[in-house]
Specification:
0% strand; 68% helix
Length: 65
Amino acid sequence: MKNKAIRWVIFTTAFLVLVTILSSYNVTFKWIFSLVVLGQASLIISVYLVLRDEYSTTLTFKDGY
């Protein structure tokens, strides 16, 4: 996996799922709020990296793309 953008997307998804799980286990509000803010920053970074990624393909809609 050379693509840095997909790594950020996977990390962000796993991180926000972890925050969701921790919120159901009565973790203090201070920790949940801090993790959610970090998760939102990670989401913004991952969106930026996906949009700026220089990925190109030769597939068309005729190829079943």
